[in-house]
Write a structure and sequence with these properties.
The protein has helices spanning 36-46, 55-62, 71-86, 142-171, 192-207, 217-220, 230-237, 281-295, 302-309, 316-330, 334-347, 352-368, 374-388, 393-405, 410-423, 428-439, 444-457, 462-474, 478-491, 496-508, 512-519, 523-546, 557-566, 570-582, 588-591, 605-614; strands at 10-13, 16-19, 24-27, 30-32, 52-54, 96-99, 103-106, 111-113, 176-179, 183-184, 213-214, 241-250, 253-262, 268-277. The chain has 26 helices and 14 strands. 55% of the residues lie in helices and 11% in strands. It is elongated and about 85 Å long. A hairpin with a 4-residue loop joins β2 (16-19) and β3 (24-27).
Amino acid sequence: MSASVSAPRRLSFGPFEADLRSGELLKNGNRVRLQAQPFQLLVILLERPGELVTREEICSRLWRSDTFVDFERSLGTAVNKIREVLDDSATEPRFVETLPRRGYRFVAPVVVIREAGPNEAGAIEPEPSEPPPSEPKANPPRKASLRRIVWAGIAAAVVVSALTGWTVLRSQPLRSIVVLPLANVSADPNQQFFADGVTDELTTDLAEIGSFRVISHTSAVAYAGTHKSAPQIAKELGVDALVEGNVARSGDRVRITAQLIRADSESHLWAHTYDFRLGDVLTAQGEIARAIAASISQTLTPQEKTRLSRPRPLDPDVALLLFKGSFFLSKLDALKANEIFSEAVQRDPNCAECLAGQADALHTMGVMDDHYEAFALARDAANRALKIDHSQAQALMVLGVVSFLYDWDPAKSEVYFRQSIAARPGFAMAHALFANTLVHRGRFEEALAEFKLASALDPVSVVTNLFGWNVYFGARHYDEALRVALAVQELDPAFELARGRLARSWEQKGDYNRAIAAAGQDPSLKAALAAGGPRGYWQRELDIKLTGRASDSHYDFSSIARCYMHLGQREEALQTLEKGYQMRDPLMILWLPTEEDFDPLRPDPRFQKMLDGLGVS
C-alpha cells in the first residue's frame, strides 16, 4: 500500500498537474476546465495513489451528513467529468479505476512538487554570517558582494514585476460576464428545467447590475456541455469572465456550487457552495449575484443592493412551477407556459415573478398565436405584478408591448420600456422589443442602437437576432435584413418565424423562387409562379390568405393588403387596411408606418387618418 501524500501544494501525474491552492488542473502547462466538485474528488484520489478510496469516504469528504443530493448520480457524474478531462477509460483505466460497489483508486504514479526550500535550487541563499570574534576577520570576497548586488537586483525586479502585474490587473476591471448553464447533478434528469431556471434567475439578478454587461441566458444555453476553453467562449461572446457550476435538488433542499473564472488567464476569482431550502431559491440567487459582483470589485448602487438583498421566499411548489413556466416560455411554447404560470399564481397570488411570467406568456400568445384577448389579460397580470414589485422588469416590458400593439399608445409604451431597462439594464429582450417600437416610429438610428445593445447581450439567440430583421427591414436596410434572416436560419433551420422573415426578404428582392423555398416549397405557389410570373405568385398568395379566413379575425390585414398592392388593386388594399384598423389588428402598427409597398397610399387622407390613430404619424 502506498504512503499517502500529506498536505502538498501541487501534484503531478502524467502530463497533468493539480494545483491545490488555486484549484486548477493543468495539462502540459495549460489550464483545462474542470468544475469544482470533480476537482475536489480528483484531489481526494491523488492524495492516496494506489489505494482504494471508498464511496463512504468520498461521501463524507464531499457532502456533509445532512446531504440532500442524490449521492450515486452526483458521484458518477463527477467521475465521468474527471475521465472526460483526463481522456481516461472506465474499461481500460490509465488514471482512475473503478472498484465496483466499493470505490475508486488512482492507479497512475503521483509526484509531489514541493515548493523550493531555502537551500534548494531556485531559492535565495542566505548571506554568510560574520566570523566569531576569536577568529581574525577576513576581507569579504568580492564574489559575495557581487552576489548580493545580483540578488538584490533580482529581488527588486521581482517586486517591480509583481507590482506591475497587480497594477495591470487592477487597471483592467471585468466589465462583462456570462453565466454558463449550471449542470444538473440531481438524481432525476427531468430536473433539467430546474437547473435551467436557476441559471436564468442568476443571470437575471446579475443583469440588474448596471456596471457590467451580462450575456442573456438564451445565448449562454448554446454552450451547455461544451468542451470549449474559457478564452474561446469569452472570445465568441465578448466577455471578460465566466460563471460555471452545478445545481443539485433533492426534495425540499437545493445545493448550488458556482465558481467565477477570469477568461484571459483562466484564473479562479471566486468559488462557493450554497445550501438552502427550495423556497429560498430566489433569495439565494440574489446573495450569489452580490458575491460575484463583490469578487470583481463591482460597487452596487443602493438600489441594486436593496433589490439583491431583499428576501423573496416562495412556497417550494410555486418555485418549481415558476422555473417550469420559464422553461416553456423560453421554448416559445406560450400556451403551456401560461398554463403553468396560472397554476403558480393560483397557489401564490402575491408572487410577482409568477405574475410577470404569466403576463409575458399571455402577450406572446397575443403576438404569435392569434389570441387577441390575451393582450388585455397580459396587461392585467403585469399590473398585478407591479403592485407587488413596482420595478419588476419583465412586467414593465410586457406593458411596453401591450401599450404599443394593443393600445396603440407609442408614447406610453416608451415610458414602460425605459422603466424596464432601468430596472434591469442587461435585459436583452426589453432592448430588442423597444428597438422594434422605435423603428416603426421613424426613429431608425435609435432603434439600431437599441438592437445592437440587445445583440451584444444576447449574441447567439435566434429570437433576439430575428428582432434585428424587423429593425433593419423597417429601416429599409434590406441587405442587412436579409443577412440577419440567413444567419438566424443557419442557427436554427427549423425556426418557423425565421422562415417567414427570410421569404419576405426574398420577395422584396423579387426572387420568388427563393421566397418559395424559404417558406417551405408550397407546390401551388411554384405552379402559380411558373404559369403567371410574379402576378401569378401574388394572386396565389392572396387566395391562400383569404381561404378559410374567419370573418371576425383581428390579424393579417397588412399582408393581405400587400398582395392587393402587388396586383395593382390599390383601392382593395386601402379598404383592407381600413378594415384592419376597425378590427384593431395589433400588427398594423408594425407595417403601416414603414412598409415600402404602401408608399403609393401615403398621400391618401384615409391612410394618414389611420397613421394618426396609430399614434405614429
